[in-house]
Amino acid sequence: MSDRQVVIVTGASRGIGRSVAVAFAGRNAVPVLVARSREDLEETANLCREAGAPDVLVRPADLTDPREPERIAEEVVARLGRIDTLVNVAGDTKRGSFLDLTDEDHLSGFALKYHGAARLCRSCWPALEAARGAIVNVSGIGALTPEAEFTIGGPVNSALLNLSKALSRVAPDRVRVNSLCPGHIVTGRLQKRIDTVAREENLSDDEARETLRRRLGITHFGRPEDIAAAVVFLCSPEAGYVNGTNLTVDGGATPGL
């Protein structure tokens, strides 16, 4: 049985999920890395080891499979003896015109980011409760500000915020549950938006990046490490009185309260 904090991170193969895993690794935790691609997870595992993780568990999984979350929870407890923290990051939803998006697009968006997270919360709950642990569900600012081009991601993210708030009331003295909404973070997903602007307006990458930044009304794009630091805080003893809240980390992009 591990005597170190055991942290499950989904979407750990890249971007925010990878940075979250590395951040916990630097704090002597044992990261459990979950995503579809074993090859990409192994890259994250190497970064975790370089950051100081004594042990790393790589667990490739397709979280749209309803059976996988329970398998993951059982395997982690069997191998490491505990689960202290669950960070749900996995999920990528399709952007585009509402009239062009299909039923399959909508169902796929919910299948991973919402249902995958909900099932993992349920499957890990007994171990988290035993450890008096914490959950952070990483949503997105589309949950707070609806966009015409984000009619899948916005509702999925909103549902995840609602779920997080509800779960924070289940056993508040034993499992803290919070959510976090990243803003415009430098990841592959943001690069796709930059590429679209460049293509549609015949701009260079740098020009498209600057054009998008101005339209979003921010001084600069965030880094995955910015989100990772906030996640680590929410899971730490210093945040012991933080439960049922949503932390927005967006550089001021969200116009509402």
TrEMBL record:
InterPro entries: NAD(P)-bd_dom_sf, SDR_fam. Transmembrane segments: none annotated. It comes from the Bacteria. This is SDR family oxidoreductase. It comes from Jiella pacifica.
